[in-house]
Amino acid sequence: MSTGSPVGSHRVVSPAGALPQAADRLDSDPDIADDEVRISVERLNLDAASYRQLHTAHGGDGEAIRAEVLAIIDRRGKMHNPVTGSGGMLIGTVDAVGPRSPLGLKAGQKVATLVSLTLTPLHIDDGLARWDGNSEQVPASGHAILFGRSIAAPLPDDLPEHLALAVLDVCGAPALVRRVVARRTHGATTVAVLGAAGKSGSLSLAAARDAHAAKVLAVVRDENEAAQLLGSGLADDIVVADATAPLPLARKVTEALDGRGADVTVVCVDVPGCEHGAILSTATGGTVIFFSMATSFPTAALGAEGLAADVEMLIGNGYVPGHADYALHLFRENPHLRDLFIDRVGTED
Amino acid sequence: MSTGSPVGSHRVVSPAGALPQAADRLDSDPDIADDEVRISVERLNLDAASYRQLHTAHGGDGEAIRAEVLAIIDRRGKMHNPVTGSGGMLIGTVDAVGPRSPLGLKAGQKVATLVSLTLTPLHIDDGLARWDGNSEQVPASGHAILFGRSIAAPLPDDLPEHLALAVLDVCGAPALVRRVVARRTHGATTVAVLGAAGKSGSLSLAAARDAHAAKVLAVVRDENEAAQLLGSGLADDIVVADATAPLPLARKVTEALDGRGADVTVVCVDVPGCEHGAILSTATGGTVIFFSMATSFPTAALGAEGLAADVEMLIGNGYVPGHADYALHLFRENPHLRDLFIDRVGTED
């Protein structure tokens, strides 16, 4: 192939007219178009929801999990879990760059892809022989294709690879939080982050602070998480509350914010049922940013209507220009973020 | 009962701690709290998705549909279709107003409820005997309860009831479109409405015009709908395209807008799979407003990320202050809207 569509539609085998993410099957031919990039794959990071589903479906049998992942990639030309609809990301080395690629990558660079595996053409050539099937981290050999409009970030030299990956995995969240907080021009802005001790949550705290929020409130699920954040300087106040229990949540958030809801509420809790609590915890005229993939569109839409809540609700877009650099910057500037991340993903690979 | 929660949590029978919409079952006791209002019900309007499901499940057998609607209301204390998760709205006459109700209603007023039936305590006392089960419009006798934070609109005297209801049913859309278009302060704003010949779509066209959009583009599915809009003055241009086919849709929208995507794209097409096309049809820095209940949260979130699309995506909140009056105002000012609505809902009850 010599010319490509920037969104990769020339790689769609079926159904006709779909974009790569919506496709049943992609063409992972290693020959690249003029604007494509080929990556030599080193590792897949399956997204947590996808791995959990595979693990449960096969009762934790690593051999069976590995066989199914291979079968999915073989059948679909991408690692797109048909049950969860989710994928993950990958790391590898740039192998070939088309003469008209706009991504600015160079052969030999080590990169992480910031677009989902659900739309990335992928071929595996080692049968995943180095993977025991018992981890989301999948050592792998093969190739993947990036389109003109894909996104990849060079891995930084100064961070352990697994920490850099964990930061890049959620880098859309802090960038969007910064934008939403910074553009509010009327008065002091209060920010409440639900799920504040997690990866996207703690980076969102740091972004809110960086955007000069007047008060940053961390909402966590238990005293253990509260203790992790205490003394980190990431939040002005910490509240323990169940994000799926709307009334107690809203009461605690409002009490912590001097009787008003938050101007910006950020939902990073990856379980269903947080929509109503987030809406009730937000002040009139405020904004809720939903980053959790467990968010239900109709529950949020009908919930706000049913509560006569004049709040703006954003679908957390994982892409904001400069998001990778910004997240890495926050991470380097805040040693407490490193502690929180190590607590989640370990000290080494 | 004498005091109520403004969001109605005192009416939740199960599960404990849920809000009325998330509840399995509500208490429809006719005794009202100090801040509640009791409505004498005259008609239910089942939402289209709910009625379609019931009709399909019972093979169009009106008796069976009626029996199931009665059973749902009896079991749940509300008309909340457990399969679709949707409800509808109702009209009736204000029967009793608690001394501390903030809704401003008076006994004897004829009103439409603007909060979903999925959270409205409801009791039916005529066995729906006047309904043949073959229409979304359900003549009914019984009572319903409004909470302190519910919303109801007095029915206007100057419009046929069924037209007023059809307008109020979608009144959140034009109000939010106006707000989003009006607050864009940098340069001329272009607006594309997908599903522009429908109820929420045509009102969104009128709202975009009212908010001084530089160009209003109507996207419709076929030539029949294009003919309905032609000469109405509601749109500057009309394009026929399938909103579920991302690339042709984006190409046509971009061509009609002089080579750029829309600054604001409004999704009023009530079928799944419009997310990617809407994102691709929107200019960098633009906004997509999703009003369709068929919108998938993860498809929108991962889609924008996968397309490296820097667009803001809003969950269409059905509540914006003043939404009912604004929609009725647009409807009265635009005789072509009346023609479009009559085409959808008929000339009389």
Automatic annotation (TrEMBL), chains A, B:
Residues 1-31 are annotated as: Disordered. It comes from the Bacteria. InterPro entries: KDD_N, NAD(P)-bd_dom_sf. Residues 10-156 form the L-erythro-3,5-diaminohexanoate dehydrogenase N-terminal domain. This is L-erythro-3,5-diaminohexanoate dehydrogenase.
